Amino acid sequence: MSKQNELILNALKTLISGGSSTIIATVTSVDELAQTAEVKLDDVGNVTDVIRLKAVIDNAETGFILFPAVGSIVLASKILNGEDYFLISASEVESVWLRGKTNGELINIDDLTSKLNALVDEVDALKSDYTGHTHSGVTSGGSSSGPPATPFTGSFTQFNKDDYKDDKILH
């Protein structure tokens, strides 16, 4: 018996005997709308199954949903004594929804902090130009142009990522 036939036979025996409570498979496609993934259970794809990407089938875009990348290896577990499997883990992740996707993407906090602090530096430079600005050679009556009568003397604070980070979610 060829290795391919042996793999197929073993997979079929597992399915017929009530199946394993945990399977290792390779993702062949992902359906974001249905929140499922098709997986192959053998090396050639002759034995396939569809697994849930979350345990509850409600198609709601809430909770935690991990979308594995096509070609990644996944671990899926059987739901009680039923026929359905749900995703436990994946070797490569395409995307993740946390409490849905209505709030958009997570941020790269270090990049954001750098950009915000660059903006603060630019505002500081503008403040300095404004408070020190004079029009040389401009006179009106007996006086010449000078800095603003009430220059801005406040300061701008640098951003600190600790002020706005959520340390419960890392990416």
Can you give a write-up of this model?
This protein is 22% helix and 27% strand. The protein is an alpha+beta fold. The protein has two domains: 3-98, OB fold (Dihydrolipoamide Acetyltransferase, E2P), CATH 2.40.50; 109-135 and 145-163, no CATH class. It has a five-stranded antiparallel beta sheet, with no helix packed on it. A two-stranded antiparallel ribbon has the order 4-7. A two-stranded antiparallel ribbon has the order 8-9. A hairpin with a 7-residue loop joins strand 2 and strand 3. The model has no long low-confidence stretch (mean pLDDT 78).
Q: Which fold name fills CATH's third level, the topology of the largest domain? A: OB fold (Dihydrolipoamide Acetyltransferase, E2P)
Give a quick account of the main beta sheet: strands, pairing sense, barrel closure.
5 strands, antiparallel
How many distinct beta strands?
9
Task: Give the helices and strands as they follow along the chain.
Answer: HEEEEEEEHEE
Radius of gyration: 30 Å
Placed side by side, the strands forming the largest sheet appear as: 3-2-1-5-6
**Could you tell me how far the N terminus lies from the C terminus, measured between alpha carbons in angstroms?**
47 Å
Q: So what's the CATH class of the largest domain?
A: Mainly Beta
Average pLDDT? 78
**How many separate domains make up the residues?**
2
Unreliable residue stretches: none
Q: What is the name of the CATH architecture of the largest domain?
A: Beta Barrel
Strand content: 25-35%
Identify the overall geometry.
Answer: rod-shaped
Q: If helices are DSSP runs of H or I spanning 4 or more residues, what is the number of helices?
A: 2
Helix content: 10-25%
Q: Give the helix/strand class.
A: alpha+beta
